[in-house]
Design a protein that fits this description.
Blueprint (H helix, E strand, L loop, with lengths): L6 E12 L3 H7 L5 H6 L3 E12 L3 E5 L6 H8 L7 E6 L2 E2 L5 H11 E5 L10 H12 L3 H14 L15 H13 L5 E5 L7 H18 L2 E6 L2 H7 L2 E6 L2 E6 L1 H6 L4 H6 L11 H4 L11 E3 L4 H9 L4 E5 L5 E6 H8 L3
Parallel strand pairs: 3-8, 3-9, 6-7, 7-8, 11-12
Antiparallel strand pairs: 1-2, 1-4, 4-5, 9-10, 12-13
């Protein structure tokens, strides 16, 4: 995340109701209860959502199937028209933009990756990646040069001439990611991009995604129903239920301080060691610094192997590598036992 935490995308009181005359009904019944919406013969996909996505962060929206997360992300890009609310991208109200303006914003400032790769089967890897640049009107030489860079960035150099049918599922998803990055988007939407992959490939793609983010520092809205994936990737998480946001917070806040009974149940089985950062459980940096160190942003689970190897304490460092605290074995044991 950027140091200033500047808001890139702001969502205010956004609703999406499906049904006849939904907009007029919602205007006459502000902030309706779910029962009132159902009684009116309407279906509420998104209910009164307020979110702020900061520049450079990975913001994960998660929930079970039917929670409204995918409809919300489509509202944020206006692939689905919200029934009411306000969506600000870089301070501009997207709901006030014309169809031509929103199309230009999507082409030049937004990237999208979905669960189904949607590669064009008759085009090669290079042609698939270059396709959005062709739509923008970029010259063939320029778009192919850009596409080659993106193909290399996702680790597929040498496969530029392959067709989608000649690639594995993980390779196809890499092409989808490269294609979405080709236009250098300022805001990147990913809707369950890895859920169709086998567990091992999925883990590899998560690693690849984090590697790309360390290089590119994109502002990302990532949709998933998998809490393990969310806590591994997210700077912050929004948990949705029945179209509404139950809680927004860091993975650690969500797990240790659930705001509702639903969030508590949703996160009940998540091991604390996976989400608690060393900066939260370290002690003061007193006495000689331990020989081994980890950053304050690392999780207790990431530190555990060192203690299994017999280390009694770790030095905890800040972003500049300065020692800011010590983590003792006893603090890790206490956390693992629920202390």
């Amino acid at each position: 995340m950027t140091e200033d935490g500047q808001a890139r995308l702001v969502c205010r009181n956004v609703w999406k109701l499906f049904g006849a005359r939904a907009e007029a009904w919602l205007a006459a019944h502000p902030a309706p209860a779910a029962a009132d919406i159902a009684a009116a013969g309407l279906v509420a996909a998104v209910r009164g959502v307020d979110l702020t996505v900061r520049a450079g962060e990975i913001f994960v929206i998660m929930g079970l199937s039917g929670s409204g997360k995918s409809t919300l992300v489509r509202c944020l890009s206006r692939l689905v028209e919200p029934t009411a609310g306000e969506i600000l991208f870089e301070g501009r109200d997207l709901l006030a933009a014309s169809e031509a303006e929103i199309t230009a914003i999507r082409r030049h400032k937004m990237g999208m990756v979905f669960q189904h790769f949607a590669l064009l089967p008759h085009l090669t890897v290079l042609e698939n990646v270059a396709f959005p640049l062709e739509v923008q009107g970029m010259s063939r030489r320029a778009r192919e040069e850009r596409a080659r860079k993106m193909v290399a960035l996702v680790g597929l150099a040498g496969r530029e001439g392959a067709f989608p049918r000649q690639l594995s599922g993980g390779q196809q998803q890499r092409v989808g990611i490269a294609r979405s990055l080709a236009a250098d988007p300022e805001l990147w939407f990913l809707d369950e991009p890895f859920s169709a992959l086998d567990p091992l490939i999925r883990r590899e793609m998560q690693d690849e995604f984090l590697r790309l983010q360390r290089m590119l520092h994109k502002t990302i809205v990532f949709i998933t129903h998998d809490f393990d994936e969310a806590i591994r990737l997210a700077d912050r998480i929004a948990v949705m239920k029945d179209g509404a946001v139950e809680q927004v917070g860091t993975p650690q806040e969500i797990v240790l301080h659930p705001a509702t009974d639903y969030v508590a149940e949703f996160t009940r089985a998540v091991p604390r060691a996976k989400v608690v950062r060393l900066g939260s459980v370290m002690g003061p940096a007193e006495g000689p610094a331990p020989a081994r160190s980890l950053p304050a942003t690392a999780t207790v689970a990431e530190a555990a192997p060192a203690f299994r190897e017999g280390v009694e304490a770790l030095a905890v460092t800040d972003a500049e590598g300065r020692v800011v605290g010590h983590l003792d074995r006893s603090a890790v044991v206490d956390l693992m036992l629920g202390g």
